[in-house]
Design a protein that fits this description.
- By secondary structure, the chain is of the alpha+beta class.
- Helices cover 15% and strands 32% of the residues.
- The model has no long low-confidence stretch (mean pLDDT 88).
Length: 165
Amino acid sequence: MDQQTDDQPKAARPALASMTLLVAAVIVHDRATDRVVLLQRGENATFAPGKWDLPVGKSEPGEPITETAVRELFEETGLTVRPEDLKAAHIIHKAWGVEAPNGFLTVVFAAHAWTGEPENREPRKHSRVCWVDTDAIPENFVDTTSSALHGYIAGDTDISLGGWR
């Protein structure tokens, strides 16, 4: 059983009808070679089959978004970053998503320090994981993360909104 302390307010019941999926994405940028780590989704992927994307994934209950970014990056690519080395690069807020009928919020981070070499650690989900020159980003890219990546490359920190009336 969780213990309540005096400095923590009692938690309210969650507003399940309005729950928004929380997602983290990471732009691993090698400034020396001006390359980023990308993955290509497999042809049988549930979402965006065959398209290129950033390492990205859903937050677990109670998990800080920086830990989500660290965990998902490692799970998908084998690269390790420290939470304190992540810098906010972009926010994506969409009203609806394939696995998010009540919308999703993606926090896109940039990392310039990491350990390891990229590898495809989820071959059932992705066809490949590799370094790509920033001037050669594939066009067949997931729309939301493409706008975040291109904004980052251009030096913009921004918010992308979609599907709102």
